[in-house]
């Protein structure tokens, strides 16, 4: 049975799962469930009614990290987490940072306000966005710049889950009109270009453009 991913792929958390599936070469179908407008009974798959959720035969899972770790354990041929314990711990840290800090700074405080709210017929709170860009974004970008390699990706030569999680959030920041200044954050800006250039991200961004361009 083909795997099913629930969630609109413009969501950074859904994109994480879909890029992981693409990189692992796994077949899947999408059910583009929209946050806050979930179908009846969705809580049976995602108890908090959040996206993404995954159905793999009898297996029903919610939460992007739980789903990606499951995919890694069940379908290990293309590895997206390092096996070395120290590197694996670092990978988990970057993913946790993306799911918590970046989720607040690039998604809730920026993308949600400027892109999702208008789509839901709600008004953008631009004051909140400006406060977020002033109070939270600089320290986030400084941290990102401080951990960036000059070449390759966060944990080596290949794109892995840590990069997918971070890149996915900053793609949404870009859709909301914010990209890191390359003069101020040169390593991070160049890294983001490398992440976005990966075929799995290119594919997703091409799909995203169909919706983003409609707005
Ligand atoms: N930690 C969760 C966060 C999921 C999440 O908050 N998803 C958002 C969309 S990006 C959502 O469904 N929000 C609707 C809600 O909170 O009810 C994950 O990584 O999957």
TrEMBL record:
PROSITE patterns: GST_CTER, GST_NTER. One of its GO terms (molecular function) is glutathione transferase activity. InterPro entries: Glutathione-S-Trfase_C-like (IPR010987), Glutathione-S-Trfase_C_sf (IPR036282), Glutathione_S-Trfase (IPR040079), Glutathione_S-Trfase_N (IPR004045), GST_C (IPR004046), Thioredoxin-like_sf (IPR036249). It holds the Pfam family GST_N_3. It comes from the Bacteria. GO terms for biological process: glutathione metabolic process; L-phenylalanine catabolic process. Residues 1-79 form the GST N-terminal domain. Residues 84-215 form the GST C-terminal domain. This is Glutathione S-transferase. It comes from Endozoicomonas numazuensis.
């Amino acid at each position: 049975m083909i795997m099913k991913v629930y969630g609109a792929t413009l969501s950074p958390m859904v994109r994480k799962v879909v890029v992981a599936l693409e990189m692992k070469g796994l077949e899947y179908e999408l059910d583009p469930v929209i946050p806050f407008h979930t179908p009846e009974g969705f809580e049976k798959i995602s108890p908090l009614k959040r996206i993404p959720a995954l159905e793999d035969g009898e297996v029903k899972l919610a939460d992007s990290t739980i789903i990606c770790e499951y995919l890694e354990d069940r379908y290990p041929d293309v590895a997206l987490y390092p096996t070395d314990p120290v590197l694996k711990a670092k990978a988990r840290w970057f993913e946790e940072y993306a799911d918590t800090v970046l989720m607040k700074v690039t998604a809730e405080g920026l993308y949600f306000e400027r892109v999702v709210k208008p789509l839901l017929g709600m008004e953008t709170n631009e004051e909140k966005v400006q406060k977020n860009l002033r109070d939270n974004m600089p320290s986030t970008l400084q941290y990102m710049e401080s951990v960036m390699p000059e070449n390759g990706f966060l944990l080596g030569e290949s794109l892995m889950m840590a990069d997918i999680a971070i890149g996915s959030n900053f793609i949404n920041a870009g859709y909301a009109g914010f990209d890191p200044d390359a003069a101020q954050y040169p390593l991070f800006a160049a890294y983001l270009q490398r992440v976005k250039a990966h075929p799995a991200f290119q594919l997703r961004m091409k799909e995203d453009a169909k919706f983003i361009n409609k707005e």
